[in-house]
Amino acid sequence: MIGRLAPIFFAGVIALAVIGFLVGVMDGVPQPGGLDETSMVAKFDQKTVDANPKLIPAVSYSEVSGSAMGPTKAWQSTPQSLPSSQYDLYTKIKLSPAEKEASGQLRASRRAFNGAPPIIPHPVENTNDAACYACHGNGGRIDGKKASVMSHPFLGNCVQCHGAMAPAPFQNLDADVDTSFVGLPAPKQGQRAFQGAPPTIPHSRWMRENCSACHGGPNGWKGMESTHPWRTNCTQCHAPSAELDQMPASDWVPMLPPLDVVSK
Ligand code: HEC
Ligand code: HEC
Ligand code: HEC
Ligand code: HEC
Q: Looking at the predicted structure, is the pLDDT value of residue 263 above 60?
């Protein structure tokens, strides 16, 4: 009995499947109901995008491979600078060994080792490079404190190298870890052929391209300034170290060139 009913049962199932398929095909592909695509396209037309450089129009997956890769316009933000106070390059500078010692200690407290990117010793609210640059581009002063000047060219995404402070709720946490790591200390001075001779540069020039960021008149670290900030070609007299520079003669640096940014 069961053996005779089984084919009839399966024939029924197949008939139902065929009817279901035909009905489905006749209905067509389901359309999105509430989404009005035309109004979205209108909102983000090219004119709106041009007017607001922070708007990044999304591309469809099929366009991804053909679209430009790399930093977006918003990420490659425009550096702004604050007005800086006038400075007389020819002011007489008196170097104080005590100030040099203090500057050295403050610098060391923010660096894992000599040449490491310093941590950011203040809270940062956003990761907008233009904000960092406004203060650190040419040593903006705020509340009696001076923002040290970038020793290197403008590089995008400051916080990829400079560690930010812990965000608000975590600032009181004890995050110290036991470690025996001891960073390379900064050199105290260069070598001189004789007294009064220009000292050699006791550090690499990589990421320290802007000598005046540390040794310069208006911006230098106290006690580390040179007595002659008006001179332009520092390496004319101060010999770089072949060992520390690790750079071939062509000044080749194993790094992407800095972003080409426009200052407003
Ligand atoms: C409102 C101005 C201002 C802004 C904006 C600002 N900074 Fe600073 N920054 C300062 C000042 C002032 C100091 C010096 C603090 C001190 O000496 O105690 C400083 C110190 C630093 C230092 C330590 C420098 C050193 O050599 O010891 C780093 C690194 C730094 N900031 C990075 C950043 C980064 C990255 C940003 C953006 C996310 C940023 N700052 C935004 C004002 C600013
Ligand atoms: C690729 C990593 C990298 C990026 C990106 C970077 N920095 Fe630095 N920065 C360094 C290093 C390394 C040093 C330390 C140079 C030294 O002491 O030899 C430094 C030093 C500094 C100093 C301290 C100079 C001093 O007085 O010792 C400031 C201020 C600074 N950077 C700000 C910035 C700002 C602002 C940005 C973003 C516009 C930025 N940095 C992006 C690696 C970076
Ligand atoms: C990020 C900060 C920084 C930058 C930028 C920097 N230096 Fe230095 N420099 C130091 C420190 C730290 C020392 C060791 C302490 C000292 O002598 O003041 C030093 C020491 C020196 C000395 C030896 C000074 C002495 O009394 O014996 C010379 C010369 C020198 N640097 C030249 C240069 C030149 C030229 C440049 C630019 C290519 C440069 N520095 C860029 C931080 C810097
Ligand atoms: C014409 C040669 C010459 C040029 C160019 C030159 N220096 Fe010097 N520099 C000297 C001499 C000489 C001394 C030693 C001065 C002394 O012992 O009284 C010196 C000393 C220094 C010192 C030790 C502190 C001091 O002033 O005694 C630093 C730091 C320094 N120079 C940085 C620089 C920087 C940065 C530049 C580029 C802006 C530069 N120098 C350009 C000749 C030069």
A: no
